[in-house]
Hints:
alpha+beta, 4 domains, two-stranded antiparallel ribbon
Amino acid sequence: MNSPVMKLEHRQHQALTPRLQHAVRLLQLSSLDFAQEVQAALGKNPFLEVDEPTSETPAPADEAGRPTLASSPAAPVDTPAASVVEADADTPWEHDSWQRSSSSAQTTSGESDTGVMEMVAADEGLRQHLHTQVNVLPLSDRDRALVGAIIESLDDDGYLRIGLDELAALVELDPAVETCELNTALKLVQSLDPCGIGARNVAECLLLQLSCIEDVRERELARHIIGEHLQRLAQHDVCGLARALGREPPAIEAICERIRHLDPHPGWRFGPSDVHFIVPDVIVRKVRDKWTAALNPAVIPRVRLNRMYAELFQKHRNSKHAELAAHLQEARWTVRNVEQRFSTILVVAQAILKRQRHFLEYGPLAMKPLGLREIADEVGLHESTVSRVTNNKYMATPCGVFELKYFFSRAMTTASGGACSATAIRGVIQDMIDAEDVTDPLSDAEIARQLARQGLTVARRTVTKYRQMLKLPAVERRRRHV
Length: 482
């Protein structure tokens, strides 16, 4: 019978300290989230302060004497360290042209009584817009209350999702509200601007907007399509509609095109627009026939260590000041983290730009296959670090603003034995669809066959996936009857 045995083994393994785990988390944050983290550290750490720019320092300028948006492209990779210097450093921050221009704009606007932001038009909500129209109508108090109840029950897209019977039970009027009264009030709401408001479904919303079609016969045909063949309209089944209505496909196509120009969400025209802005982390420009990358100064937090507080603490520190010592260490770590973060972003962006410069010259068709390991080996980082650096980081180029991950794609073997990126294949598919005959568009299978004739072996389902990534409709929805 075997007896239990105890033995000791020496084994080494890597472990991330809590601080290193925090640094890894910060590295994958977007610039906006990272700036919020730094701002929170500024609010609770007495040893951190905002690095205010000096007014005597002139803005960087190019050869023509115009202020630049970023640091000089010839600057070394580790220039971001200049943006987070300590208080006694004499080196000015060289990325402050944007901040000075915004500060001067604020100073100029402050000279007048009315600020710039006060002159911006306020967004008008849907309900406010409708109430404004109702207030000028000659209505009784009871009718005005019913119309107001319907307006307040509308969704943000302008639809009335609640039933009239349920709404009648919620309105407290004496005598009790009848359904016919609410029907009259609903008709009044549906006559207001914007057209199509107060509808209870998509079909009713579109029917309310048919008054924009001047021709009576076309309007009645559109009414028939919306009322009885809405599903075929959504599927773009022009041939099926033509057979069902006994009309020629070109005539049906023209009516369907008029219907598609109607607004199925009229309430979205009002209220604050949900616009997401992207601030690029890296700006790419061509200088002396060479593509260069520079950090966007707008995303680099202005933070530095307060030298005076640090020296006073070092002179008078003792065991009772353990909390202040932790704050000082945290402040130094925050400054180093800002330096390391942006220097890493810049060196990775430069490595990407070095390999994908043909993309900037010729477009997506010139995109080369690129993997994380290739960039990691060049810059001396781990693949996971490169993945975090390229997450939620954006590069502004003359071709547009792209996420850094956009420049990575797996290699696909061509018939000649070479390699082609998936981005280049998507560019070829886009060009094929742009040049196709609208009366006889290309199916995904036909696109796959044409790619094969060009030496690109791509499966039909892969073509479908790439087409959907390009947000291009299927073949039947692209077909037009002329």
